[in-house]
Amino acid sequence: MANEKIKVKNVGIQLYTVRKEMLADATGTLKQLAKIGYKELESARSEKGLYYGLQPKEIKKITEDLGMTLRSGHVHIDKDWDSTVAAAAETGQDYLICSSLPSNGQTVSNYKHVADMFTKAAEDCRKAGMIFGYHNHEYEFEKENGQVLYDVLLDNTDPELVKMEMDLGWAILTGNDPVDYFNRYPGRFPLWHLKDMDKAKQESTEFGKGAIDIKKMLQVADKSGMKYFFVEQEEYAGTAMDSVKHNYNYLQKLSI
């Protein structure tokens, strides 16, 4: 039927959302997330390493046994980059995402330097069978001489080699329209962080309680080239697990 609405499937989560829980009991927390219904996972650096004290092959097996896929991971480009790439390849993940700007300086020249770093990192990832990407915050949308710094990264990297993980919350909170980016840079955004934002507090909140139109964003997923999205929330009204349950249930009630 032409008017048939599509349900949201393959809901992912960025594990930073449950960072304390993962550090306390990684396996138990993954079991809870699987029980809620989350299917796709993105890891983040922690006090216990890239995989919360688990070895790469361990987390691969645990997630697979739970019917989940470790799809991506947030890392830094630093002195341990080679071992970071090797460990990520062991997990079988598809994407390796630089989680924050690896060089200081809110200037066009620095962002061009970072773009060169990203090109090299992306080549390393490709050799290891993965796709490299970058996750934005809010500061990338600052300007120098009228030039948006985020655009410098996009314009100075190969669109086939360097992808972007659009954090929808930060993009919208800074007054930018993700759809504008999807139109100008089609196919560059295979990954998303899906979050709602409290504008007054300038922080994340549970779906439906903030300023982001979650449904509208999901309706333009094809335009961005989005393959996977990860629910992310850094602050909570109650417990982290209550919030991830709320967010999952909110998505299950949507028809796109």
UniProtKB/TrEMBL annotation:
The keyword Isomerase applies. Pfam families: AP_endonuc_2. The keyword Oxidoreductase does not apply. Keywords: Isomerase. GO terms for molecular function: isomerase activity. PANTHER family: HYDROXYPYRUVATE ISOMERASE, INOSOSE DEHYDRATASE. This is Sugar phosphate isomerase/epimerase.
